[in-house]
């Protein structure tokens, strides 16, 4: 993801379903269908076209303003870590896709806010995660840092 951001690409669909495992130490990012190149004069991309979106993985500014940046990809990476820590338990994750007209009315938008609220409360917000690596937990919290996003 660091390489993509250095080339001014925003993936916009980073999720466990789009990560290919090559070996224990190497993974590859796939599915670049929603990827956009950042304009030279901006540090973000505004989505104009309506359509289906994986809103559970979206940062708050992506949900509310259709604004995507390197920081929103970092947020998505935090959700990927959350998925890994919960073993992608369907009870912890909402539907992956919803159309734009139902953005705030379906489970995805509300559950993305739930992840945000958990992150805002720090470690205690993720206390139900029983099988996470303590070494990676600070990375998870950093992904949801408000300083990074705004």
UniProtKB/TrEMBL annotation:
It comes from the Eukaryota. Gene3D superfamilies: Transferase(Phosphotransferase) domain 1. SUPFAM superfamilies: Protein kinase-like (PK-like). One of its GO terms (molecular function) is kinase activity. SMART domains: TyrKc. InterPro entries: JAK, Kinase-like_dom_sf, Prot_kinase_dom, Ser-Thr/Tyr_kinase_cat_dom, Tyr_kinase_AS, Tyr_kinase_cat_dom. Keywords: Kinase, Transferase. PROSITE patterns: PROTEIN_KINASE_DOM, PROTEIN_KINASE_TYR. Residues 1-150 form the Protein kinase domain. PANTHER family: TYROSINE-PROTEIN KINASE HOPSCOTCH, TYROSINE-PROTEIN KINASE JAK2. This is Tyrosine-protein kinase jak2. It comes from Ataeniobius toweri.
